[in-house]
Amino acid sequence: MNAFKVCYVSAEVAPFATTPRMKGLAQTSKALPVMLKEMEQDIRLMMPKYKSINERRYVLREVIRLQEVAVEMGGATRSANGKTAFLPNSKVHVYFLNIPEFFDRKGFYEDPKTGEDYEDNGERFANFCKGVLETLKILCWQPDIIHCADWATGLLPYYLKTHYAEDEFFQNTRTVLTVHNFNDQGIFTPDMLNKIDIPESMVAPGQPLELDGKLNMLKAGLVYADVINTTSQFNADAILGDAALAYGLGNTLDARGNDLHAILNGTDYDEWDPENDQHLSAVYSVESLNEKYTNKVEICNEFGLSPDPDIPLLAIMPEPNNEPTLGPVIETLEEMLKSPLQLLVMEARPSAHSAAFARLAEEYPEQVIFYERYDTRLSHLLTAGADIILMTADSEIGRPHHLNGLRYGTIPVVHRSGGLADAVRDYSEDFGNGFVFEKADKKSVSAALKAATKLFKDKAAWARLQAVGMEENFSWEMTASQYFQLYDMASMK
């Protein structure tokens, strides 16, 4: 395998800065570079130095060469400064670029007091993009690939191919843009163009940076990046088939169809491994699936349920984006709990459906447990001990419970959307690994859950289905290998 020098640029990186707004951006920006580093790629991260990042906790250190990084923009020169640290528990260097005027404030994108986006977000992230390129030159580190993520880094490919087109330092540098969220595009009025060195002609009707008469930073990235990708093949196909789903960017994506790819986010097989999971009462593998039941006994006993090998235990761990689709689930459960079924809900934070789950627990105290916080140990034990795990919305904002379930022989029942549709194939199809409902309504959810609980009674068929999921590979290592191929494609542009 060849080695690439990769500069990964992101507005969010876990654990330093993370929001649900960008649908998994922070998690990807951590997990992918770590795995690429383990694959012996020379990768470095760059992100803004937000005020909220705790320098002592994460051991940020001064970089003498980066004490004064000149960022020339709109006729003004601002002095940026850079610090560095390692991603926790890894060897990945992270460079934090601070431009005090723009990032020495409490919020990432919006003012915490008002909840409104900062009016100068366009200037903030344009200056950050320019600052990244200047920082690379000062470091004398020439990346083969600059990997950009979402709208906040969308101008970087544009600047590279315009302002730095004749700069020998970047002559062999190519760009990749990953889009997690097509809805958040970085849209700004043209009156700021002179402040970020973009000619008005670039935002004239039909021009590369224009959409609906405004500057669109995500479109800039889609037009100028050498290769682009989404995190779901299902979403990519849907967008190319229906321009309305691209929030106005359908024609742009159609024009880049040959350069548009999809790579599914993975899960951490070091943390989520049933053969070595220290949170479990009993570790197990495909060859020792009978040990899985020991974990069911443990999780049931811990919460006061009576474990029964003939009664399916259903796990639900709602994530922030699940709320719109949980209503039909609750209606279905009200019906299904009249039959032999156990339910354990672990909710990370209060939601509009908390009261409904609490009511079910009151009405069916011997069948339903509602646990109102997320606990790492119990989440592992529940993933191992449950028979079925239900997810109703795309997994990009939160934990990939469906992937972890597959790894642990816990059958996923999911809505056909986004990454869920990419990973889970319905049992009715050849080589299915779970159960899929097409619509987020009571009829569809009920049919999928009933199909799962019916198959559960056939122990031999159920074990075969468990084995299919456990033997598949949804690791970050697999994801990283696909990104390596993407870098290879970009390098040949």
Explain how this protein is built.
With 493 residues, the chain is of the alpha/beta class. The chain has 2 domains: 277 residues, Glycogen Phosphorylase B (Rossmann fold), CATH 3.40.50; 188 residues, Rossmann fold (3-Layer(aba) Sandwich), CATH 3.40.50.2000. Helix content is 34%, strand content 17%. It contains 16 helices and 19 strands. Strands 1, 2, 3, 4, 5, 6, 7, 8, 12 and 13 form a 10-stranded mixed sheet that branches. The protein has a 6-stranded parallel sheet with strand order 16-15-14-17-18-19, with helices on both faces. The protein has a 3-stranded antiparallel sheet with strand order 9-11-10. α3 packs across α4.
CATH fold-level topology of the largest domain: Rossmann fold
Report the uncertain regions.
Answer: none
CATH architecture of the largest domain: 3-Layer(aba) Sandwich
Radius of gyration, in Å, reads: 24 Å
**Strand proportion:** 15-25%
- Percent helix, as a range, is 25-40%
Per DSSP, the total helix count is 16
Which structural class is indicated by helix and strand composition?
alpha/beta
- The CATH class name of the largest domain reads Alpha Beta
N-to-C CA distance: 19 Å
Outline type: elongated
Major β-sheet profile: 10 strands, mixed
Summarize model confidence as the mean pLDDT.
93
